Amino acid sequence: MLRNMLLAALAGSLSASLAFAQEAQPQVGASPWGPKDQLGPLNLMTDSSRLAVLSRISHGKVYDLSVEYFVGMPSWHGIGDPRYQYWLTHTPRGATIDDPMKVGRKGNEHVSYTGDAISLYTHMGTHIDALNHFGLNGAIYNGFKADEHLGDQGWKVAGAETIPPIVARGVMIDVAAAKGVAMLPDKYRVTRADLVDALRRQKLSLRKGDVVLVRTGRMKLYESDHAYEADAPGLTLEAARFMVEEGGAISVGADNMSFEAFPSDVEGNYVPVHTYLLAQQGVTLMELVNLEALAADQVYEFVFIGASLKLRGASAAPMRPIAIPLRPER
């Protein structure tokens, strides 16, 4: 009898321990906007919020925050993803010979016709990650399960096509400048304290509804794919938590390729920042954002305007964001 009681107690203890361990594992977040929501905190954008920030534009100077796409550009080819490819489909002399439009030699000699095509991995160049990019335990943000919502032609929910044009107050946190360097050292891990210190130096604070962009200075190496990619600095999980939970960011970004720091220091999760932002908080993130011109002019507060390609079902999409400086509030 005693033996059976001990075995039962042990079994119960093991069962409880297993249940606790499962509960302790990070789970995907549930959207406060309902079970069908696919936007997360981007729901906080409204006509009123957009009008409020647009009304504070100080002048007409526009900062282009995107990078150029070119053959040989930085990419994730090291882990098996395709490089950027560009090729000509029609050339003026070739069109004269092939006559694809059936207009004759004289017609082709009069009108020079050039056509081209591209092929790219969606997570290269300046882009935004959709909420289906990373999940936990077979599900993405708001509990959408891969077994139910992932088809042969992409996700049926939370794809890049669902990301609305983003118009919001933007804040650039220049960590490199706060450290007194042009570029953070290789493998530097950006902490919450780094962000707080940089904001203090910039005399700014974050607000609910912001788009927050972090500058490491890595963009200075963009023309050399190996130098840009190798041992890049990145953000820690505590830094991401600060931007979202304390700062109220609805979307975040940085000028490096991975946003977060590698290797991960979170046991059992090789991409803790991505899964925290996308899967748990529903916060989209941008990578390879070019912040050099903003940094040169010390523009830290601006209206952020960004619209990405509506790639149905995709986990990311290229975008060309811009920043327009804001006048100080009275």
Topology of this structure?
Layout: H1 2-24, H2 47-54, E1 63-64, E2 85-90, H3 92-98, H4 104-110, E3 115-119, E4 127-129, E5 139-140, E6 144-145, H5 146-149, E7 150-151, E8 154-155, E9 166-174, H6 175-178, E10 189-190, H7 192-202, E11 211-215, H8 225-229, E12 234-235, H9 237-246, E13 251-254, H10 272-281, E14 284-287, H11 292-296, E15 301-306, E16 316-318, E17 322-325
Parallel strand pairs: 9-11, 10-12, 11-13, 13-14
Antiparallel strand pairs: 1-17, 2-3, 4-14, 4-16, 5-6, 7-8, 9-15, 15-17
Helix pairs in contact: 3-4, 7-9, 9-10
Descriptive overview:
With 330 residues, the chain is an alpha/beta fold. The protein has two domains: 27-72 and 123-325, Glucose Oxidase, domain 1 (3-Layer(bba) Sandwich); 85-119, no CATH class. 28% of the residues lie in helices and 19% in strands. It has helices at residues 2-24, 47-54, 92-98, 104-110, 146-149, 175-178, 192-202, 225-229, 237-246, 272-281, 292-296; strands spanning 63-64, 85-90, 115-119, 127-129, 139-140, 144-145, 150-151, 154-155, 166-174, 189-190, 211-215, 234-235, 251-254, 284-287, 301-306, 316-318, 322-325. The strands form five sheets. It has a nine-stranded mixed sheet with strand order 1-17-15-9-11-13-14-4-16. A two-stranded antiparallel ribbon has the order 2-3. Helix 3 packs antiparallel against helix 4 and helix 9 (237-246) runs parallel beside helix 10 (272-281). It is globular. It starts with a helix and ends in a 5-residue tail after the last strand.
